[in-house]
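The instructor's notes for this session suggest beginning with a concrete chain rather than abstract definitions. Hand out the sequence below and ask the class to guess, before any prediction is shown, which regions might be ordered.
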Amino acid sequence: MKLYYFDIPFRAEPIRLLLKYYSVKFEDIRISRKEWFEMRILRKPNTIMDKLEFNQVPMLELPDGKVIVQSHAILHNLGCQYKCLPLCEEGLYNIKNIMDAVDDMILKASVIYSPFSPYTPEHKKVLFNKFESEDLVTFFTAMDKRLKENCRKDFIYGDGYTIADFCLLAFYISMKTTELKGIFLNNLKNYSLLEGYFRIRCRDFKCYMKELFPKVKLIYFDTEYRAECIRLLLKNAKVDFKDIRLTPDQFYKDYINDSIQKQLPELKYGKQTLCQTAAIMKFLEIKYSYTPFTLFDRKKEFYPITVEKIMGAVKDLIDKTSDYLYIAPTEQAKEKSWNEYIKEKIPTYFKVFEDILKGNVTKEFLVGTSYTIADFYLLGFARGLIYSPKIPKSEFVKAELDKFPDLKTYIETRLKDFN
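After discussion, reveal the predicted structure:
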C-alpha cells in the first residue's frame, strides 16, 4: 500500500494516523514542491499523474494496483475496512459533520499561512485576527460540547476511534506545524476537555509524535556569527528549540569532549547530532521545505546555484571578520585588516547581493518567491555584523549598506519577521 501526498500533515494526516493505528504497513511517499511542479505543470511522463483522477493528492494505491483519491473518500473506504465508521444514520451524520468542520478550519487556516495564498499581507492580517478571535473559538466550543455530550470524553463520537477522531487529531498536528501554532494552543487552553482529549489521543502515537516533533537543541556561543542563520530558520519554521549559548570557558571545560568535531555550532535533532553550519542548513532546508522554488520562472533551474553562491559569499564575509576580531596579531594589523574589509570586501559582496535581489522575480526574497536558506544566511550575517552591538565598528558596515538601498530595504524588511 502506498500513500502519496506532500511532506506536510493536513489532508493526508488522518489517513496516516488511521493506517498507523491499525498497524497497516504502507509507504508514506512525500512529494516535494519541485516534484509536484514537474508532474503537475510540466507533465513529466511516467508519474502518478496518470493515475490521479482529479490531478490532486492524497492518493492511496492499494496492493492490487487500484487507486483511491479524495481524502474523505479514502477515509470512508478505510473506515469501513477497519470498522471505525459507524453505519447508522446518526453516526454517519455526526462523523461527517465533524470532518466537514475540520475541513472548513483547514481552509480558513491555509489562506493565512500558505505561501500560495492569493491574499495581500494586510488581508491576511484581518483573516488572522478573525481566525484567532472567532473561528477557533467557535470550533473549539463546538468540539468541547460534543465531548461533554458523548458517552466517553476521550473520543469525539461513540466509545472508540472513528475516522472523525483521526481528522480531529490530524488538525491538531497540522496546526502545530504552522505559524498559527501559538494562537491555536493559547485558545485551546480555555477548553480543558478538548485539550485533554488531544493529550490522550497523542499517546496512542507516541513514537510518531517524536518523529513529527523531535527535541531540538542548538548549541553555540552567546553571539550570532555562524549560528544565527540556523536560529532564524528554526524560528521561521516555528520549531520549538533550546538555544543553548555557552561561554568559551564552558565550551572548553565542559563541552568540547562531547562535541563531534570539537567545535560549534552543533544541532541536536532528536537522536541525531549535526555539525558544520552549511551541513546543518542543508539538512533543515530539506526537512522544512526551504528548497528554492517558484512557478513559471525560467530561471528556476539556476536557483540552487544562486543559493550556494550566496551561502559561500556570506561564509567568506564571516571568515574575513575573524582576521579583524581574532587572528590579526597586533592592533595595527587589525586596523589594516578592517580597512580592507570595509573598503574592498563589503562593497564588492553587497553589490553581488543587490544584483541578485534585483534579478529575482520578486524583490522580497533573494531567490524565488519565499524564504530559502540563502535569506537566512544573509540575514544572520546582517544581525551578527551590521546590527549587533557586540561587533566593534559595525557602524562602518551600516554606512556601506546605505549605498545599496534595495539591499538595505530587503534586509530591514525581512528582519522584521523575527522581531
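Then share the key points. The chain has 17 helices and eight strands. The chain has four domains: 2-80, 84-211, 216-287, 298-418.
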